Amino acid sequence: DDEKELLRRTLAAEYKFHSPYWDDISTSGKEFVSSLMCKDPKKRSTSKQALEHPWISGDTANTKDIHASVAEQLQKRLVKAKWKQAFNAAASIRQMQKLSIISTASDPK
Q1: Do residues 83 and 75 touch, judged by C-beta distance below 8 A?
Q2: Are 24 and 30 contacting, i.e. CB atoms less than 8 angstroms apart?
Q3: Exposure string over 19-49, b if 16+ CB within 10 A, otherwise e
Q4: What's the Cα-to-Cα distance from 39 to each of 14, 49, 79, 109, rounded to whole Å?
Q5: Cα 15 from Cα 79, distance rounded (Å)
Q6: Are 77 and 44 in contact (CB under 8 A)?
Q7: What H or E segment, with its residue span, contains residue 42?
Q8: Which of 3, 46, 93, 101 has its CA 20 to 30 A from that of 85?
Q9: pTM for the full predicted model
Q10: Contacts 24+ apart (CB under 8 A), 55-62
Q11: Angle at 47 between CA 31 and CA 9, to 5 degrees
């Protein structure tokens, strides 16, 4: 399952900044995320350090408006999730129909 694998990788701090999702995020922004994703709590940024990071407190973020690209990626993920739900619902209905047919066929009247 993709979600379980994502959780496993997140907990293991195994991540990458995949294109095109992270293309418009500055190096400083990626460093900020990396500082929060550090597996070793002693090396991970504290909330105070995170708030003081230049990407948050300074001017190192890209000035490009990323709303459109982020919205597009979210929309794609939403559509994929809805298709997955529809497929799972159809598979469940098909399985229930098979069980109903088997139950009806083996029911002596």
Answers
A1: no
A2: no
A3: eeeeeebbebbeebeebeeeeeeeeebeeee
A4: 9, 16, 32, 63
A5: 24
A6: no
A7: none
A8: 101
A9: 0.53
A10: 55/26, 55/28, 55/29, 55/31, 56/32, 60/26, 60/28, 60/29, 61/26, 61/28, 61/29, 62/24, 62/25, 62/26, 62/29
A11: 55
Token pair of 37, please?
């994703």
Q: Radius of gyration of the chain from Cα atoms? A: 23
The Cα 65–Cα 56 span in angstroms is 16
Tokens representing 1 are: 């399952």
- Residue 87, sorted as left (phi over 0), alpha (psi -120 to 50) or beta, turns out to be alpha
Q: How many angstroms separate the CA atoms of 101 and 63, rounded?
A: 61
